Amino acid sequence: MSAKKKPWVKSAFSQLNMTPKEDSEAVPVKRTRSASAAAASEVKSQRKTNSTLNTKTVVDLTLEGENEANPTESETNGVTPTVSDNWMESFAPSTSDDLAVHPKKIDEVRNWLRHCQAMRSKFPAQICLLTGPSGSGKTATLRVLAQEFGYELQEWINPIDCEEISALGDQATGNSYMGSQLEAFKSFLLRASRYKSLLATHNKRLLLVEDFPNVLLKDASSTFEELLDEYANYGKSPLVFIVADSKSRVLNISYKLFTDQLKAKHRIEHISFNSIAATIMQRSMKRFGTLMHQEQHKTLYKLPTQTVMDSIVVCAQGDIRSALINLHFGSLKGAPSMATKQINVTAPSKGRKRKATNTLKSIGRDESITMMHALGRVFNPKFNEDKNKTLLHSPEELSEAFCTEPKSFVNFIHANYLPHFIDIAHVKDAINDIGVADMLLQEYRDDSLALVGLTVAVRGCMVANAAPVTGWMPVRGPKRLTVQAQLTAAEQKLLGATYAGISKSLFTSEYSSFVKIIASNGS
Q1: What is the Cα–Cα distance from 74 to 180, expressed in whole angstroms?
Q2: pLDDT tens-digit profile of 463-474?
Q3: Which residues contact 297 (CB under 8 A, 6 or more apart)?
Q4: Closest to 412 (Cα-Cα) out of 425, 402, 422
């Protein structure tokens, strides 16, 4: 029997009184009764004796196997281990020191909550947006800090669609309708922020929305903006939206709902979380191991080896939830050990010995990559040692990782690609492909062309740079050409009435330099 079932059997039957009451001796059957009554009485007495024998031969299943020789400390002390229905709650952080999040991000959320307290009397309906990859600690950080500041957390969960039937007394009228999720969401925002629950222990409330109604995803901008306008006027509590990053633009809620204009209008505080660093993840794994050694978990868990622990951290790719789930299933007693494999690592530099890195063989998640790492792979391409010299990193995979922001990524390539080239002929090939990508990105009628344009820019820059410049070079942000410069009187006279019809980007890229030269020569 497995270790998980042993405490269950004991806890379920240990409180029952297994000592049967002594039955009085059977009274002999009187001869005056009929033969059938006597036979029934005899059968009844036999059943009683059989039940007595069965209750006396009860076996305690928790004493089988190794527990007979080595009983655990909890069993000798009479303490029964308890397991929560939601086992992840046992490992949830209780203080800010237990969070597996960078301290700067914790301080940003804490400063926003302090700002909410300071503006509580004048502008109570403050709004915050937390974004980041899944498993980066967004919800856990908010729950811990809300408890620290004395907020009662009110979370919205999408209700199940139920058909409501109109009835007059006990008789159904035949009319039925479906409740609107949008109306329920509006009611939640206004009522939960203004009225206190009878079961609440805190006077302050903090609203959390992580599960968005489906109707907002269909008709995104207009309906959601009206909701926030109404909440800004009538809401009485801070409101937090938590959105997980997505590679698909269609599924990216922060891109569709929270536009720059909307965030500026309602002064929404946007805090972006990053994937959890390996050092912080290692510290959290040690905390999980300490919790597994506690009395209530000792009979369920047995910590794996350090190699498996390190492999779980590498396999999680900065996702603390994935790491905890893998650790949970890998530490259960009776579960098979997790197989690991070594990762192929490039040759280390001179004087530095690199530690061998392992990962789990059968469990893993897709590799996530930041923009800085992706730009490094574009500007310093590496080739496989084969006859065709194929690229080590696929341009298509790099493009798919940033398909939600193609224009931003191409702008970074524009601003930084030139110092990484040695030959001007290679620059010519790269700029031709980047120019084609610019033309594809301007096409607004088909969203699929944005990914094509990004792929053309990435592949063109990687293939053209046959001999990249070695050495560290900082990455500079692209220049934003959003403000049209004020023209002098001579320049305005030169353009005439056509100046008003020229777009800002066209004037900055095509007209500006020529107008200045002609105006200066004419004067």
Answers
A1: 52
A2: 998 888 888 888
A3: 81, 90, 291
A4: 402
